[in-house]
């Protein structure tokens, strides 16, 4: 099942983020994000309500078009469940949620070395818009800005 994330999910979300080397968010960061206006936090759970994967980000306004845009901050799936379509299910539900909110574009940053993620996003109709120099740390790395029109 995919549903909006709950406070009770935070420990598992943080653990998945660490397991798959996402940008580190603390439990306090997630509590703030869940409460933030325009935030979308989705969780894919198993039959026992255990977290299998998640995504989160927030709504904003495009500096280029002035239209509503969603900035995807993180998407993570438990390492032992990768390749089973969980990330795709989360993106499909995110598209639905964006449609309900009148959001016409999703944007994200991805490390240039993360070829698996880049292929995943391209499979879901994201295109690379630009290279952003040195936006990542630990280790320092360039990132691609990718976008998908809905």
Helix content: 25-40%
- Strand proportion, as a percent range, falls in 35-45%
Mean pLDDT: 95
The shape, in one word, is: globular
Oligomer: single chain
Continuous helix count: 4
Q: What is the gyration radius calculated from CA atoms?
A: 15 Å
Counted up, domains total 1
Taking the sheet with the most strands, its summary is: 7 strands, mixed
CATH topological fold name: Aminopeptidase
Structural class computed from helices and strand pairing = alpha+beta
Beta strand count: 7
Identify the CATH homologous superfamily: Gcn5-related N-acetyltransferase (GNAT)
- CATH class descriptor: Alpha Beta
Within the largest sheet, what's the order of strands? 1-2-3-4-5-7-6
What is the H/E string?
EHHEEEHEHEE
CA-CA gap between termini:
23 Å
CATH architecture tag: 3-Layer(aba) Sandwich
Structure description:
The chain is α+β, with helices and mostly antiparallel strands. It has a single domain, classed as 3-Layer(aba) Sandwich (Aminopeptidase), CATH 3.40.630. It is 29% helix and 38% strand. It contains four helices and seven strands, in the order βααβββαβαββ. A seven-stranded mixed sheet has the order 1-2-3-4-5-7-6, sandwiched between helices. Strand 4 (68-77), helix 3 (86-100) and strand 5 (105-111) form a beta-alpha-beta unit. It is globular, with a radius of gyration of 15 Å. The model has no long low-confidence stretch (mean pLDDT 95).
